[in-house]
């Protein structure tokens, strides 16, 4: 049976602004924190990362780890409520949003996670180390994860009422239904539905056609570039 994972239900009005705007990522980066940044947000912004909601307000953000409703059962992001990422990643996510709207005007992207401080990565790894869940969490002792560079985004599709579309598993589900390697098999065995598969394929289409990379263990996770190209080139988010 699929694990039931309860998320905080966000009001559609909060997730989908009445007049959202779309623009490309600015070529120049302003290191000065904007009004309303918390200390940790100001620090991340000063490292050159951008807030995706400022690039395209049609993209909704609900950072799961800024709530207690996640696999660890407690709030991990204290003072971090914005989805920061490298400008190059933000540019591709905005392109994916535009492509999605051209295919399905009633849908928007919903971001669950973006840049993740390395200290949080250690907390996550300590919880899953030595368990079957290891495959779903990057080991920070072996080179860190793409989120720790601001080079990854966790995302899903959201309908016009502000609800995530069914994808066959919840976000951060540790099981076969989260993987993208045998989705036809999952469908044949009744583990996911045809609609859920179609939703996954649509998400994957708009993200990969915009230049992003998948990983096999999580349908929601997309990288700016292959992992081997990141390490040694980018800075860790502290």
Model description:
A hairpin with a 2-residue loop joins strand 6 (213-215) and strand 7. The protein has one domain (36-230): 2-Layer Sandwich (Muramoyl-pentapeptide Carboxypeptidase, domain 2). The chain starts with 11 loop residues before the first helix and ends in an 8-residue tail after the last helix. Mean pLDDT is 87; it is low at 1-14 and 24-33. The longest helix is centred in the middle third of the chain and has 17 residues, at 87-103. It has 238 residues and is α+β, with helices and mostly antiparallel strands. The protein has helices spanning 12-15, 39-46, 52-55, 87-103, 118-128, 183-188, 194-209, 227-230, and strands spanning 50-51, 60-61, 84-85, 108-113, 152-158, 213-215, 218-223.
Structural class: alpha+beta
Strand content: 5-15%
Radius of gyration: 17 Å
Low-confidence segments, given as residue ranges, are 1-14, 24-33
Q: Report the top-level CATH class.
A: Alpha Beta
> How is the CATH topology named?
Muramoyl-pentapeptide Carboxypeptidase, domain 2
The CATH architecture assignment turns out to be: 2-Layer Sandwich
Largest sheet: 5 strands, mixed
How would you spell out the order of helices and strands? HHEHEEHEHEHHEEH
Q: Give the N-terminus to C-terminus distance in angstroms.
A: 38 Å
Shape: globular
How many domains is the backbone divided into? Answer: 1
What is the typical, i.e. mean, pLDDT? 87
Portion of residues in helices?
A: 25-40%
Q: Count of DSSP E strands?
A: 7
- What's the arrangement of strands in the largest beta sheet? 2-4-5-7-6
Tally of contiguous helical segments: 8
């Amino acid at each position: 049976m699929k694990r039931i994972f309860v998320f905080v239900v966000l009001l559609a009005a909060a997730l989908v602004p009445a007049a959202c705007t779309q623009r490309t990522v600015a070529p120049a980066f302003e290191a000065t924190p904007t009004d309303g940044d918390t200390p940790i947000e100001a620090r991340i912004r000063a490292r050159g990362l951008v807030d995706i909601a400022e690039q395209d307000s049609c993209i909704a953000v609900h950072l799961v780890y800024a709530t207690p409703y996640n696999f660890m059962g407690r709030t991990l992001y204290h003072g971090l409520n914005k989805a920061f990422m490298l400008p190059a990643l933000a540019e591709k996510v905005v392109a994916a949003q535009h492509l999605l709207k051209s295919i399905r005007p009633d849908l928007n992207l919903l971001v669950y996670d973006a840049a993740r401080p390395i200290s949080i990565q250690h907390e996550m790894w300590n919880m899953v180390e030595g368990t079957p869940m290891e495959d779903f969490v990057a080991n920070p002792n072996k080179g860190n994860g793409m989120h720790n560079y601001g080079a990854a985004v966790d995302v899903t599709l959201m309908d016009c009422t502000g609800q995530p579309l069914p994808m066959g598993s919840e976000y951060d589900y540790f099981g076969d239904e989260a993987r993208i390697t045998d989705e036809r098999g999952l469908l044949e065995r009744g583990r996911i539905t045809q609609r859920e598969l179609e939703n996954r394929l649509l998400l994957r289409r708009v993200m990969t056609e915009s230049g992003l990379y998948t990983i096999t263990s999580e349908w929601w996770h997309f990288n700016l570039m292959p992992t081997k190209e990141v390490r040694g080139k980018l800075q860790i988010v502290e």
